[in-house]
């Protein structure tokens, strides 16, 4: 891959990874409610799960959407419904110090699996392959792109966990924490708008 294309791809991976979306909203809330260390499996699940998705798209999975456009509509509905469920979980999350709390942060597999029903992740993966994979690119090139995306994605999304962890110092009052969690849940639901109604 020419250096100009590589730099453009890294920029694409960074911008799409660090900007607000369902993953980053959940990571912000996770950092606040569960702390940095307990949120790391969520980070790794996003980065590795997304890299596997990019490999799948590069291997030809995106052709399914071209052949059967209704699949994308189904994905948007299923992903939207799951995101509403996650918004409810976020809104009702109990703080880490609450002895009565039954909530747990997203684990690795749950975060990795979420990428497959996250419409924004599909858009990012298809964009990465169609824009940056050389014409007639081999599976080896797909794997390199996928791994590079994961390497850029992990520190980019970790910023959101760090910010959430930092907010814990100021949101010690449970009332303010509840307001924060409900606000994050609303943001998750609002993130559906461009994906479901484009």
Explained architecture:
The chain is an all-alpha fold and 198 residues long. The chain has one domain. 78% of the residues lie in helices and 0% in strands. It is built from 9 helices and no strands. Helix 4 runs antiparallel to helix 8 (174-190).
Tag the structure with descriptive keywords.
198 residues; mainly alpha; globular
Secondary-structure topology with pairs:
Layout: H1 3-18, H2 22-34, H3 36-67, H4 70-91, H5 108-114, H6 119-132, H7 139-167, H8 174-190, H9 192-196
Helix pairs in contact: 1-7, 2-3, 2-7, 2-8, 3-5, 3-6, 3-7, 4-8
Could you give a quick summary of the protein structure above?
The chain has 198 residues and is mostly helical. Helices cover 78% and strands 0% of the residues.
Number of domains: 1
Assembly category: single chain
Number of strands: 0
Task: Output mean pLDDT.
Answer: 81
Radius of gyration: 17 Å
| Alpha plus pi helix count | 9
Terminal Cα span: 33 Å
Q: The biggest beta sheet, please?
A: none
Shape descriptor reads: globular
């Amino acid at each position: 891959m020419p250096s100009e294309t590589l730099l453009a791809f890294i920029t694409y991976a960074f911008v799409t990874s660090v900007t607000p979306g369902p993953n980053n909203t959940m990571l912000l809330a996770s950092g606040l409610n569960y702390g940095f260390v307990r949120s790391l499996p969520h980070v790794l699940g996003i980065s590795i799960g997304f890299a596997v998705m990019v490999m799948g798209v590069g291997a030809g999975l995106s052709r399914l959407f071209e052949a059967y456009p209704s699949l994308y509509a189904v994905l948007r509905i299923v992903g939207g419904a799951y995101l509403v469920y996650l918004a409810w979980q976020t809104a009702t999350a109990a703080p880490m110090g609450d002895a009565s709390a039954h909530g747990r942060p997203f684990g690795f597999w749950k975060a990795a699996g979420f990428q497959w029903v996250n419409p924004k992740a599909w858009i990012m993966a298809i964009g990465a392959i169609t824009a940056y994979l050389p014409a007639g690119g081999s599976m080896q090139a797909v794997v390199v792109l996928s791994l590079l995306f994961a390497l850029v994605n992990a520190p980019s999304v970790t910023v959101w966990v760090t910010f959430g962890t930092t907010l814990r110092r100021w949101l010690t009052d449970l009332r303010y924490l509840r307001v924060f969690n409900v606000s994050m849940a609303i943001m998750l639901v609002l993130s559906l708008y461009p994906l479901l109604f484009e």
